[in-house]
Amino acid sequence: MSATSHALFGRIKALENRLDAFLDLLSDSNIQFRAGITYFLEAGGSHAAVFQQKLKEIGAIQTRAENLKRQIEAEFQEWVLIPELRADLVGLIHAQGNLIVQFGEHLQHFAIENPVFSLELHKDIKLLGEQVALSVESCVMASRSLFHDPGSERDHIHMAKRHHEEAHTIAMRLKATIFTAERGLEQKIHQRTFIDRIWHLALMGEQVCETLAMHASPSSPCFWSPMFSTCASRFNPNFPSRPEGFRIANRGPRPV
């Protein structure tokens, strides 16, 4: 193998490592958020030391994720020469990074506003947090599969959607319980807002998976791009070569 090939594979491996590290941070922020909600409910609100610790940890994750995201985007800008494909890949990383940001911001809202939930709501709120965590983790697994085991991401995408649907069901049940209880309207609206914020994270995870599903299709330019196919073939010798006659058409600028 030539020195140029060695250098190419070295850069591919470095990019793979950064992508895996970025997805690790998404998974970590998901875990910390779920733990933070549990501690908020069980330890007496936002002033609990265990909750504050989770708040600090998720803030540190956000900082590391932002730095990694910038490095990955710079690699995409340098390697991917097709404008439309480059925009899609950068958009995917942005969406995943925004999910990490939202985990931190939503936990900050709990810290600042310190909502009060009656004990009868705690069980379903924890169940909601569990389904959100499972949905986002399925999103992380689907993202890994796109590089390491193309084709297997469909199962993870399906599970992300199922967990999102379950999260939506639980969120609706919680809101029904909230608005039928004997409490002030202001408190009901405040509680509903936080239920929607938690559920929205599962929705964001599902939306990332929908973007992944488009990229994972053999009809997608992303699937056959040199970076993706080279990465995938190193982990999966059965990864198909680009079909003869397949080409990536320049479809012109996207409508604004």
Topology (SSEs and partners):
Elements: H1 3-42, H2 49-79, H3 83-113, H4 119-148, H5 153-180, H6 185-216, H7 221-224, H8 226-235
Helix pairs in contact: 1-2, 1-3, 1-4, 2-3, 3-6, 4-5, 4-6, 5-6
Instruction: State the domain count.
Output: 1
Q: What is the highest CATH level, the class?
A: Mainly Alpha
The CATH homologous superfamily corresponds to Phosphate transport system protein phou homolog 2, domain 2
Q: Report the portion of residues in β strands.
A: under 5%
Question: How many beta-strand runs?
Answer: 0
Walkthrough of the structure:
By secondary structure, the chain is mainly α. It has a single domain (10-233), classed as Phosphate transport system protein phou homolog 2, domain 2 (Methane Monooxygenase Hydroxylase, Chain G, domain 1). It contains 8 helices and no strands. α1 runs parallel beside α3. The protein is globular.
Summarize the structure.
This protein has 256 residues and is mainly α. The chain contains 8 helices and no strands.
Keywords for this entry:
256 residues; mainly alpha; Methane Monooxygenase Hydroxylase, Chain G, domain 1; 8 helices; 80% helix; globular; disordered N terminus; disordered C terminus
